[in-house]
Structure formats: structure tokens, C-alpha cells
């Protein structure tokens, strides 16, 4: 067995991979939310449609997209493996124990939060990513060049109260997941230090509030602006 397979099959290796994929997905969220803020621009969707075409045709971005898909799959798979391993290592709960006194609620329920986010991600990909690549999308022309009018797809999708509610609620769960996952990833990588840990914790808390809030504000803005 090679050192790579040994590492990936060990508990420490799995936690390391979880941390690395988690941090990569955090970087992805920063880029994704930054680009999507173009939805707020009052130009009929021109800036957003041009941005969307660049993100789907640029070779470097395509490579990053594949890395994102791989990271999501690895993060999900190894989270399931670690959860099952932890349960099998302690099949019987401690009698009269109070988990809430030993760990935060988010820490104890990362699997549940991750499952909810995964379900949301499937719905999100089916509603937008799948349509973007294979759906029948109207075209628009800017400066003599044609673009898929993805803005109109997003705009009409968020006229649904149910879909807007789903997105906002899912962002709450994302924030809870990030509030523990951000700090946990740095700890797993050994980057926790009495001098830096408080700053990492504050940064993680700010990130887990600001980024999900920005994502949630987009469907709300589109719904109420109409």
C-alpha cells in the first residue's frame, strides 16, 4: 500500500482532506458570491450575463470548476466516512452525558447540516447549472456578441416564494455549517495558536455571517424588486 493510500485511509488523513477541500470550497464561495453581486446591478442583467459567459468559457475557470466538483464530492464522501467511523468507535453513548456541555451544537450536527446543504446544492445545480449548460435559454446581444440570458432565468426563478424561502433557509444552514467548519479546518491543519486562534475564530464567525447573508439577499432583492 502506497503512502498516499495509507494517508487517505487513516483518520488523520481523512480529516486533513476534509480540511483542505473545505478551505478550497470557502475560497470558491468568496469568488461565487462576488460574481453574483452583479445581480444587484441595474442594467437588465448585461453585466451578469457577460460574467456568466466568461465563467463558462474561460479555460482556467473550467479547470477550477472541475476542482470544485471534485472537492465537493471528496468533502461529502469523507464526511460520511468520518461520521460512520466516529459512531462505530463509540457505539454506545455515555450514560447521563450532556453533549451540550462538551461541544457546540454546530460541532455535534455538522453531518446533518452538511446533508441539508447537499440537498440544497442538488436543487441549485438542477435549477441553474444544468439549465445553463443544456437548457433552452433565450439569447441576448451586447455589442454585436450573443450571450445566454441567464439573468432572466434567475429573475423568473426567484419570483417563487417557495424557492426564495428555500434559498434563504439554506443559507442559514450554510452559515451554521461554516461557523464551525472554518475554524475546524485551520485546527486540523495545525494552524491553531494561542496568538492567532482568536483572530481565526472571529474571521470564521464574520465569514459565516457575511457570505451566507449576501447569498440570501440576492433572491430577496430580486423577489421584492419586481
TrEMBL record:
The species this protein was found in: Cecembia lonarensis (strain CCUG 58316 / KCTC 22772 / LW9)
TM region positions: 63-81, 110-130, 150-176, 203-224
Lineage top rank: taxon: Bacteria
GO annotations of cellular component type: membrane
Record key words, sorted: Membrane, Transmembrane, Transmembrane helix
Protein name, per record: Succinate dehydrogenase (Or fumarate reductase) cytochrome b subunit, b558 family
Entry-linked InterPro entries: Cytochrome_b-558, SQR/QFR_C/D
Keyword Transmembrane applies: yes
Amino acid at each position: 500500500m502506497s503512502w498516499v493510500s495509507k494517508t487517505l485511509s487513516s483518520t488523520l488523513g481523512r480529516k486533513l482532506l476534509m480540511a483542505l477541500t473545505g478551505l478550497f470550497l470557502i475560497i470558491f464561495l468568496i469568488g461565487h458570491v462576488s460574481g453574483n453581486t452583479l445581480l444587484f446591478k441595474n442594467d437588465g442583467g448585461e453585466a451578469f450575463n457577460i460574467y456568466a459567459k466568461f465563467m463558462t468559457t474561460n479555460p482556467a475557470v473550467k479547470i477550477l470548476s472541475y476542482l470544485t466538483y471534485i472537492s465537493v464530492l471528496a468533502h461529502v464522501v469523507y464526511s460520511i466516512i468520518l461520521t460512520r467511523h466516529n459512531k462505530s468507535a463509540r457505539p454506545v453513548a455515555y450514560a447521563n452525558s450532556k453533549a451540550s456541555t462538551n461541544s457546540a451544537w454546530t460541532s455535534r450536527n455538522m453531518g446533518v447540516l452538511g446533508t441539508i446543504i447537499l440537498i440544497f446544492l442538488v436543487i441549485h445545480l438542477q435549477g441553474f447549472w444544468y439549465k445553463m449548460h443544456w437548457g433552452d435559454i433565450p439569447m441576448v446581444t451586447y455589442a454585436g456578441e450573443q450571450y445566454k440570458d441567464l439573468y432572466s432565468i434567475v429573475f423568473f426563478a426567484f419570483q417563487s416564494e417557495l424557492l426564495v424561502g428555500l434559498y434563504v433557509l439554506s443559507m442559514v444552514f450554510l452559515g451554521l455549517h461554516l461557523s464551525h467548519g472554518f475554524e475546524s479546518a485551520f485546527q486540523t491543519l495545525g494552524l491553531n495558536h494561542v496568538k492567532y486562534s482568536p483572530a481565526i475564530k472571529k474571521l470564521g464567525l464574520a465569514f459565516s455571517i457575511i457570505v451566507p447573508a449576501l447569498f440570501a439577499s440576492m433572491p430577496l432583492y430580486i423577489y421584492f424588486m419586481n
